[in-house]
């Protein structure tokens, strides 16, 4: 690889001779890189022979990059006090010129990097060192305002617009946000206090939001104390969220973990979430705005998720589901001290649909409800929703689950005149708590079947006869995101 392609930072010529940052991709490229280094050393003489590698790292990614730079090259200061908002945006703006020339990476070394919101570019990787911490600024001037999402019609906290997320991007292709378990700290207490005091004129920012984009990877990071939702891909496709740890106080408001929203072909796997709201919340727009926008979330797989959320759900479908939710597959899920395992939230006026939902191999410890479906979730964007817009809930499949210390097995409440249909529950054993409800199942306006379920379900979910016992469905074929192969990417930072 030519040297001029790996050297990109706005330094003086003298400084540029001192710092060389070179990406290394396949093994064959390693030989080329070594030869280039040796050639440089021979030219520079004895002084250059003192060169050594100060930092290097490898990670798995959808794409490797031809160019790299450090945030320090653009004036970044990792002291936890100096604002780096301009440094991040200057770096990304500079690196955007390489989008069509192998892409670029911005490296964040160890340190505490205070910053407000900044926007990403295409064919770009943001990589955090394991001891790097992005600290969200508490200066409101460093948070640009955005219009409400068109599928929502208004902000979640206030009717007006919303603050841009800490890491933001729109209309992008091939974007990676990764790290060696580096940390993004939203310093959310500042925002939670304003929320509880009713002092917010605009909706709180999220930690990561990518809009109208495709080819997104968010992996191997720790997300702390988000002001609101943590990860929000919206109107996007081909998304991998992998190896993420999300931590927030269990009473923090609306700190949802991962919220795929009007997205297609998404995989969420190997994540650990402690949250004040739903660990994964699947969405697609709110009431008449979501119906008009008409973009569903579909082809979503959630795999190997561990959730702790005493006041909300492990996996929630809705309540903003007016664009539709279809083909969601969840497997190998663990819920601990969480209000509900799988929850479907909708209401009259939502319209849309939730269908073809498949969940298997779920373990639940200390739950209020194992299963919860409600058709009377009353939160509306405004008073202009259509009371005749009834949601369609059908094809809900739960199988191969074990739970213990559960207060109530299920609360399943459809809508009068609009029952939830084709519910299937099989091979499920729910151990009730010592002070559990006397009636473990409550069911209204639902239709379906069960087999091998303990305790005995309600009469609206009749147990099949022994000779007709069958497992509920779970599709055997993969969705396209499962076929994406990650590359081994390597970067080394050299001082000569």
From TrEMBL:
Subcellular location: Secreted, Cell wall
Domain of life: Eukaryota
Pfam families membership: Glyco_hydro_28, Pect-lyase_RHGA_epim
GO MF annotations, alphabetized: polygalacturonase activity
PANTHER family tied to this protein: PECTIN LYASE-LIKE SUPERFAMILY PROTEIN (PTHR31339:SF50), PECTIN LYASE-RELATED (PTHR31339)
Rhamnogalacturonase A/B/Epimerase-like pectate lyase domain mapped to chain residues: 70-115
Cleavable signal peptide: none
Protein name as annotated: Rhamnogalacturonase A/B/Epimerase-like pectate lyase domain-containing protein
UniProt keyword annotations, A-Z: Cell wall, Glycosidase, Hydrolase, Secreted
Gene3D superfamilies named among the record's database cross-references: Single-stranded right-handed beta-helix, Pectin lyase-like
Similarity section: Belongs to the glycosyl hydrolase 28 family.
Upper taxonomic lineage: Eukaryota, Viridiplantae, Streptophyta, Embryophyta, Tracheophyta
Biological process terms in GO annotation: carbohydrate metabolic process
């Amino acid at each position: 690889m030519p040297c001029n392609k790996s050297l990109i930072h706005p330094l003086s010529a003298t400084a540029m001779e001192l710092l060389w940052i070179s990406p290394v991709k396949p093994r064959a490229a390693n030989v080329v890189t070594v030869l280039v280094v040796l050639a440089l050393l021979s030219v520079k003489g004895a002084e250059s022979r003192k060169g050594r590698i100060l930092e290097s790292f490898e990670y798995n990614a959808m794409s490797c990059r031809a160019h790299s730079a450090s945030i320090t090259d653009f004036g970044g200061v990792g002291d936890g006090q100096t604002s780096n908002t301009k440094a991040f945006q200057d770096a990304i703006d500079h690196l955007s010129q390489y989008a069509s020339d192998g892409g670029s990476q911005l490296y964040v070394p160890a340190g505490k990097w205070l910053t407000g919101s900044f926007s990403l570019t295409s064919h770009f990787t943001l990589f955090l060192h394991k001891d790097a911490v992005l600290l969200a600024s508490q200066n409101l001037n460093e948070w640009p305002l955005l219009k409400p999402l068109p599928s929502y019609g208004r902000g979640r906290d206030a009717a007006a617009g919303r603050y841009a997320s800490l890491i933001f991007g729109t209309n992008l292709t091939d974007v990676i946000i990764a790290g060696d378990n580096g940390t993004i700290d939203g310093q959310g207490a500042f925002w939670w206090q304003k929320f509880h005091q009713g002092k917010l004129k605009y909706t709180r920012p999220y930690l990561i939001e990518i809009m109208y984009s495709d080819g997104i990877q968010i992996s191997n990071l720790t997300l702390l104390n988000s002001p609101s939702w943590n990860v929000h891909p919206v109107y996007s496709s081909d998304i991998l969220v992998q190896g993420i740890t999300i931590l927030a106080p269990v009473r923090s408001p609306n700190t949802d973990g991962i919220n795929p929203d009007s997205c297609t072909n998404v995989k969420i796997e190997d994540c650990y979430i402690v949250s004040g709201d739903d660990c994964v919340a699947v969405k697609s727009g709110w009431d008449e705005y979501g119906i008009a926008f008409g973009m569903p979330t579909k082809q979503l797989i959630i795999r190997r998720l561990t959730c702790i959320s005493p006041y909300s759900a492990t996996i929630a479908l809705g309540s903003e589901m007016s664009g539709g939710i279809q083909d969601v597959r969840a497997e190998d899920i663990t819920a601990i001290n969480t209000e509900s395992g799988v929850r479907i939230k909708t209401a009259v006026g939502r319209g849309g649909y939730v269908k073809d939902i498949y969940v298997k191999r779920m373990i639940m410890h200390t739950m209020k409800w194992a299963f919860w479906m409600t058709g009377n979730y009353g939160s509306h964007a405004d008073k202009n929703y259509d009371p005749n817009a009834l949601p369609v809930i059908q094809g809900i499949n739960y199988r191969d689950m074990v739970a213990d210390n559960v207060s109530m097995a299920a609360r399943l409440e459809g809508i009068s005149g609009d029952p939830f249909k084709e519910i299937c529950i099989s091979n499920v054993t729910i151990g009730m708590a010592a002070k559990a409800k006397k009636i473990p199942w409550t069911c209204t306006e639902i239709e379906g079947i069960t087999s091998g379920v303990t305790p005995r379900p309600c009469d609206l979910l009749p147990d099949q006869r022994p000779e007709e016992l069958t497992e509920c469905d779970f599709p055997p074929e993969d969705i396209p995101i499962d076929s994406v192969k990650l590359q081994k990417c390597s970067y080394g930072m050299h001082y000569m």
